[in-house]
Amino acid sequence: MDRHIQVPFLEGDTEKLTAGDYVYLTGTVYTARDAAHKRMSEALQKGDALPFPLEGNVIYYMGPSPAREGRPIGSAGPTTASRMDKYAPKLMDLGLKGMIGKGKRSVEVKDAIVRNKGVYFAAVGGAGALLSQCILSSEVVAYEDLGTEAVRKLEIKDFPVIVVADTKGNDLYETAVLQYRTAPEWGVK
Amino acid sequence: MREISVETVSQVIEKLCIEANHSLSEDMREAFDHSVETEKSPLGRQILDQLRENMKIAQKEMIPICQDTGMAVIFMEIGQEVHFTGGSLEQSIHEGVRRGYTNGYLRKSVVSDPILRENTKDNTPAVIHYEITEGDKVSITLAPKGFGSENMSRIFMLKPADGIEGVKNAVLTAVENAGPNACPPMVIGVGIGGTFEKCALLAKKALTRKAGERSQIPYVRDLEEELLAKINATGIGPAGLGGTTTAFAVNINTYPTHIAGLPVAVNICCHVNRHMTKVL
Q: Does B137 lie in the same domain as B9?
């Protein structure tokens, strides 16, 4: 089912989402990837404030290419989410509701999603030019020295994502693949 | 001796960096067009259409196809009759990358040290592979490599007794593990033989081959076709969200190897398989 959703989330919003839903997000999200997560984790350990409020918010795992003159941002597609798996459960326990990225998440993250009634969305990897058209403004709010890895506040409009992991514990990456699988398991690690 | 100025090399590389990150080669575009017709999953077709639209926007609006504009991998094939003038060839290559990534609004994704991790802010250094060839031509191939897929690449040091079945198992294992992380539909570069580092280089170079162009060696061509069919039967599909288009191509390069070994490298590339060549 396609639908339009406002972010940050309000109480109860995420419970209406089911793995496989094609959703358009409008509102505010924050970007953070590897280096910003490391800094946020260090800030929490020291008891310092985070660069943005987690409550109800969504983190977009993304580091853009530079903006040309007159544009809010450059290419802006998702990065691989699993590199943030180490940090995500803690952030969700502190109020983070949603994440946008690409690729599989750990069991710990999926448990944290169920426990905190959160959601993990996939944006289509490698569609950075198209996705940039849904970003109205971008402002660096922390860690400017990290360049592309700085924390940015983005205003987005009708940003297309797909629900991958939902509050019920579903994981679209596991279920959708089976539907089209005609091969046996190869099973070598 | 034919003389070529190193400034020419910088200029060519600057241009290649910008072009390769904004428009894919014709063979990749054809692979996309073909897959939209054969993909069985409706969501998969929707994603493939989104990716085609993305390429149009990238070219028209001059926005990189993907924000990960990669680490610049450069294959230099240098004719032995060529003499470079005006400075250091190596420095001129890095200078071309520096100009391309700065002037082309491309992302600077390189850190100066793998542990200390400070961004070099101009995407240098490049990774350069030199090859000396006959004649007086210089062929420069630029292949910017994103790390979503690079991180899912693997090397397997198989035993000779593992044979061709072992090779198939290695490739399929790497692809299954890569799943959605490598931004499918992927292009799979495979190196078989040589030594530990040689097979990795064979695999990397295989990614610069045209999608749809098959190996000249009959058994290798058959292997490429068989593996592509098996990869597309995994169900991974576009963006890893289910479907019948998991890879566009499997490109295999081989090389003689040692009596005791069967090295296999699997270099995975996402659908943004950027490679561009200029011959001087």
A: yes
- The answer to whether position B33 is within a domain reads no
State the pLDDT at residue B95.
Answer: 98
Summarised one tens digit per residue, pLDDT across range B149-158 is 999 999 999 9
pLDDT tens profile B231-259: 999 999 999 999 999 999 999 999 999 99
Enumerate the residues of chain B whose CB falls inside 8 A of the CB of residue A148.
67, 107-109
A64 close contact with B: CB closer than 8 A:
yes
CA distance B104 to B160: 47
Domains of chain A: 2-9+27-155+162-180 (3.20.130.10)
Inside any domain, residue B53: no
pLDDT in tens, A137-148: 999 999 999 999
What's the domain range around B117? 2-20+65-145
- Same domain for B72 and B139? yes
B113 and B13 fall within a common domain:
yes
What one-character-per-residue DSSP string does chain A give?
A: -EEEEEESPPTTSGGG--TT-EEEEEEEEEE--HHHHHHHHHHHHHTPPPSS--TT-EEE---PPPPPTT-S-S-----BGGGGTTTHHHHHHTT--EEEEBS---HHHHHHHHHTT-EEEEPPTT-HHHHHTTEEEEEEEE-GGGGGGSEEEEEEEEEEEEEEE-TT--BHHHHHHHHH--S------
Query: How many structural domains is chain B composed of?
Result: 2
Residues B118 and B214 in one domain: no
Whether residue B199 lies inside any domain: the answer is yes
From A103, A129, A178, residue closest to B54, measured CB to CB:
A129
List, for residues B211-224, the tens digit of each pLDDT value. Answer: 889 999 999 999 99
Percent of chain B with pLDDT over 90: 96
If asked whether residues B170 and B231 sit together in one domain, one would say: yes
Q: At residue A189, does pLDDT exceed 70?
A: no
B 210-239 → A contacts, CB under 8 A: 230, 233-237, 239
Q: What is the ipTM of this complex?
A: 0.92
